[in-house]
Amino acid sequence: MLPNESFATIVVVHDDPHLLTFVANVLKPLHIGVVGIESRMACLDRCRKQPPDALLLDLMMPDDEGMHLYRQLCADPALSRIPVILISAIDRDLFFSYHQFSCPKSPHALPPPRAYFEKPVEAEDLISCIHSLIPERKVS
């Protein structure tokens, strides 16, 4: 589905085409546009030009791309307003414990994401999350 200004658009940053297909199929009945992006730089460019209503980010991408992107989104005042949903193959607490341990001298603590899902994501949970993040007028 192509994005339409009257409806919501979600950017899915991933390295797994199955995730994009899953999200697109789950959100299609809600008339939410889904844009798949496979790299950090392409995502930043897209978000600066056309900020989405929400961003679904797979953290476990090669070369820590997902984590680097999340840091950049949080650090940019304009982009930090975009609601970010993180998904990962590992437990939320374990992930953030590791992240704090591996980056103890980080000058800025990362804010928590708007939502965090462990893979596999349940369709009902994703729909509920999207409804809580996006204005009702943009979701049918």
From TrEMBL:
<feature type="modified residue" description="4-aspartylphosphate">
    <location>
        <position position="58"/>
    </location>
</feature>
<dbReference type="Pfam" id="PF00072">
    <property type="entry name" value="Response_reg"/>
</dbReference>
<dbReference type="InterPro" id="IPR050595">
    <property type="entry name" value="Bact_response_regulator"/>
</dbReference>
<keyword id="KW-0597">Phosphoprotein</keyword>
<feature type="domain" description="Response regulatory">
    <location>
        <begin position="9"/>
        <end position="134"/>
    </location>
</feature>
<dbReference type="InterPro" id="IPR011006">
    <property type="entry name" value="CheY-like_superfamily"/>
</dbReference>
<protein>
    <submittedName>
        <fullName>Response regulator</fullName>
    </submittedName>
</protein>
<dbReference type="InterPro" id="IPR001789">
    <property type="entry name" value="Sig_transdc_resp-reg_receiver"/>
</dbReference>
<dbReference type="GO" id="GO:0000160">
    <property type="term" value="P:phosphorelay signal transduction system"/>
</dbReference>
